Amino acid sequence: MEEKILKRTAVFLTMVSVLICGTIFYFPRLKAVSELWVAAVEEYNLKITAEQMNMTGLELLEYNNEQAKGQGEVSFDSQLRLELPLGVPGNELKVIQDYVTQTIDIKIPFADTEYFYHYPMLGRSDNIDSLTYESREGYGVVEIVTSQVFEVKSSYDKDYFYIDFLTPQEVYDKVVVIDAGHGGNAPGATKQGVNEKDIDLDIVLKLKELFDAQDDGSVGVYYTRTEDVNPSFENRVGLANNSGANLFISVHNNSTQSGRMSSINGTQVMYDELNGEETLGSKGLAQICLEEVTAQTGSSNKGIVEGNDIFIIRTSDVPVALIEVGFMTNQTELNNLKSEEYQEKVAQGIYNAVMRAFAEGY
Length: 362
Ligand SMILES: [Zn+2]
Known about the structure:
Elements lengths: L1 H24 L4 H23 L4 H14 L9 E4 L10 E5 L4 E7 L5 H4 L3 E2 L4 E9 L2 E8 L4 E6 L3 E7 L1 H4 L2 E7 L9 E2 L2 E2 H19 L4 E5 L9 H9 L5 E8 L12 E5 L10 H16 L3 E6 L4 H4 L5 E8 L3 H8 L1 H20 L3
Parallel strand pairs: 9-12, 9-13, 13-16, 14-15
Antiparallel strand pairs: 1-4, 1-8, 2-3, 3-6, 5-6, 7-8, 10-11, 14-16
Helix pairs in contact: 6-11, 8-11
Bound molecules: zinc ion.
């Protein structure tokens, strides 16, 4: 036992001697070495403090900001600044945005579980609802949930990665949110093996092609879904409200109350009667959608209807129109709605409605 201790002491003393000799021989480097040492101790203390205080990511960001202020850290113009792990160039970081859930993931290669403590992130925390860090499969992921919809702009230099949050209005002249009804395990109306969710999505994807082709960058279009998923109603209407959209348009298809096949057919558009001004309100938008869609498809005009029973209409802060394109319970209309050609006409009608609404001052 004592022999072991003696051995360890000897090893320790030898290491100290080597360190002292090294220090004497490399005296000019002493300052750099001691600075590294101090930095390592600071990082360690930060980690201990954060862990002991059981801080959330957001609290740690605030704490880092306070520490940096105390140390006279140079300021930076961007909203957030991440330090690049040693040897990782900025172009290897990936930023993945999900507008519907207002989530931004920053994937950092070679960032281990300690990264978030060893490389303190700095910046503004307003507009951030939550901030988490997780390391998995060779990547560190900083996940930010924002309080509004933002467009992320990133840049980097040799040491840091910078993130800016831009509002849609800083990027686009006009903003529209397009919602394809239902999705995932919510099929909507089902007739003769055809699900409403698929028709709604097909129309929206054709509408997306039209917007993508226009692409002069003046109109920002956000979609609640572009695949077979079912976002919550809160997320759907949240995309419109939290992006400050000028218009919110939801695409659905109708059926009779009994669900039985019938001769009832035609296009109906629902609006928010509490935002019912003819001019630049929900009612006016519904009328524009009705006119433009029926002009393209030739379907019969079944008028605009009050829609406040519907959650996304009632809770929309922006002019909203929910288009019931046609009746799936009418055989002719169901056949039309299944055809690509007819879906293209519907998409063109909605596109024209959006452009007309913007031209009219929405
Ligand atoms: Zn529906």
